[in-house]
Amino acid sequence: MEPRLSLLRQHWVWALLICLLIGVGLIALWPRLAARPTQGTTAEKSLEEIGLYGKVPPFSLVDRSGKEIQLSDLLGKVWIADLIYTHCPDTCPVQSAEMKTLQDKFAREADLRLVSITVDPKRDTPPVLDEYAARFGADPARWFFLTGKEEAILRLAKEGFRLPAAEIPVPKRESGGATHAHSPRFVVVDRNGEIRGYFSALEKESLVRLRRTVEFLLRGAK
Fold this sequence. Notes:
By secondary structure, the protein is an alpha+beta fold.
């Protein structure tokens, strides 16, 4: 009887030690897990609430028509911006298709502009952007496709819109895959050049919230 009790005690000791180790591990990992927002979390959705996220800095880029577009050309308008490139095999076609939907949805709103900025200006010249824009039925008077110097575009993306954007090093590229990494979020900017929210181009609920925000700003709300 005594050997069985001793063996049982050993099992209980090992079980308690294992539970203790698991508990310590979870406690150590909790700060990292809690700080890592996942798609659809409250931390991510908070960016979709109407707020003040900083002003877009002055910039000067070139539209697909060859015309220079500056921040001053957009002041007084509500606009939606995104980052794309024409050879993108991932999110860009989805983003541009959603932009077309927004163009159609707000067709009667004279004060709305759509602004797509390439992160691959070496290949995306105005003629290339013009051909790409035509595929999506973009209205040249209301939907701008901008290119320019790479440094200026990356600075605008990172420091202005606070969105990640970078060229993928050649050794890390997959065959036929993406050449650039960038955020698929839409940025809503008000008439004063103030960023009012960030919305995922890949989530229907997020796009619904985007439309509500745009309607709110178009009505002159602040």
